[in-house]
Amino acid sequence: MAHVFFSFECTFSLMPDSSLHDDAVLEAPEADGFGTRAVHAGQQPDPSTGAVMTPIYQTSTYAQAAPGEHKGHEYSRVSNPTRTALEGNLASLEGAEHGIAFSSGVAGIDAIVKSLRPGDHVVATDDLYGGTYRLLREVFEPLNIQTSFVDMSDPDAVTDAFTEDTALLWVETPTNPLMRLVDIEALAERAHAHDITVAVDNTFATPYLQQPLAHGADLVLHSATKYLGGHSDLILGAVCTNSDEWAEKLRFQIKSTGAAPGPMDCFLTLRGTKTLHLRMEQHCSSARRLAQMLNAHDKVGHVRYPGLPSHPGHALAQKQMSGYGGMISFELADDEMDKALAVLDAAEVFTLAESLGGVESLIEHPASMTHASIPAEEREKIGLTDSLIRLSVGVESFEDLRDDLDRALSRV
Ligand SMILES: *Cc1c(COP(=O)(O)O)cnc(C)c1O
Question: Kind of pairing, strands 197-201 and 219-223?
Fold first, then answer.
């Protein structure tokens, strides 16, 4: 799906789509814009009552007319109508055949890696979500699934890490928290030449800004806890894929190991995705302006935001993404942990908290919070410094966010 790249203010796609009529939205062939799918895909008025919003089917089991004769659902670990609606919605947004929802993002990652076999090898981004690192290192290494962590901004380094046992390439882009860009298409080509499955954690970008399957990935992972849910009020994960075989494996994992999301969280995620496109426009626009402000600030050192022309992945972002996202990380001019902590302490509109992707702005210190599970020497190796601060830019008034950061930085 091609939406035009926005390089300055990102508001033009908020224009109403005049080709849509109120009746006939779902079936009309032209009604396939991102916003239309965000609002409608996977859902229809409830067949039993006409309820426009998909109900929260708070049930574990379903009446059968005769043994094995049912309306598509038998037991809610396996499937549930609220979850099915969400899965259809997420699949549509990622341009995928299948969407599979999990009880959390890490449950989705776990199900993918658990589908491998002992002796298989994984190559993963070296700068990635701390929980993914912990899962690969502390849960799967003892089960003899080894992982090599590499800087994927150099595609050759990735190929060099392949062994004859490599079965999975785990990509995060933009990376967390260093905001590096990884070329999905280039890596997918190299991995597929060796029959390696390519999974992309698309949590930071969301399908509104980046569609990894269109760039050759086999699996897309989401922590819907973040932008898809969008309101910091749930934990949920999802995998989207065009592979029938992978979809079957992952559904088998949920059925067998139980990482199913509850209907309430599925409902909340569906409510969140309806406004994903609107929220992302605002996240992108405010983050871009804040990144520029930080970049010009004398208390600030290196600013990591793909929308800055100085970012090494800027050109790749323009090729691979349709906007630069709402996440920024930056170092202080004086790279000292105490000073970073003072900024966190002084921020008021930005809440000091882990996580990201909600309507509210968050500020955090990766070295002592989200990425504390990565050993200090590993952090140093990848350039995750002690003064690094990560921002999740929310949808509050831009001026208040700007003034809050400016005030906090003046304390340093
Ligand atoms: C939060 C996050 C996860 C894990 O998701 P949970 O829903 O917290 O289990 C995975 N990847 C990224 C990039 C994340 O930010």
Answer: parallel
Is residue 9 in a domain?
A: no
- Terminal-residue alpha carbon distance, the chain: 45
pLDDT in tens, 120-141: 999 999 989 989 999 999 999 9
CB of 320 closer than 6 A to ligand 1? Answer: no
What percent of the residues of the chain are helix, what percent strand, and what percent coil, each to the nearest 5?
A: 35, 15, 50
- pLDDT bucket at 374, cuts 50 / 70 / 90: confident
Concerning whether 183 is annotated as a catalytic residue, the answer is no
Whether the CB-CB separation of 52 and 25 falls below 8 Å is answered with no
Residue 43 has φ and ψ, to the nearest 5°, of: -125, 150
Q: For position 345, which CATH number holds?
A: 3.90.1150.10
Q: Any catalytic annotation for residue 279? A: no
Closest approach atom of ligand 1 to CA 355: 1
Distance between CA atoms of 393 and 380, rounded to whole angstroms? 26
Whether the pLDDT of residue 6 is over 70: the answer is no
For the whole model, what pTM was predicted? 0.92
50-104: per-residue pLDDT in tens? 999 999 999 999 999 999 999 999 999 999 999 999 999 999 999 999 999 999 9
Question: CB–CB of 327/366 below 8 Å?
Answer: no
Angle (CA) 56 59 61, round 5°:
140
- 130 alpha carbon – ligand 1 mean position (Å): 9
- For ligand 1, atom 2, the nearest C-alpha belongs to 223
Atom of ligand 1 nearest to the CA of 128: 13
To test the pocket of ligand 1, the residue of 90, 106, 356, 392 to mutate (highest count of ligand atoms within 8 Å of its CB) is: 106
Domain that holds residue 373: 276-409
Please indicate, yes or no, whether residues 287 and 263 belong to a single structural domain of this protein.
no
Catalytic, 304? Answer no
Minimum-distance ligand 1 atom for the alpha carbon of 236? 7
At 211, which CATH number?
3.40.640.10
Q: What is the pLDDT of residues 310-333, one digit of tens each?
A: 999 999 999 999 999 999 999 999
- Residue 336 in this model has a pLDDT that exceeds 60: yes
Candidates 236, 370, 300; CA nearest to 362 is: 370
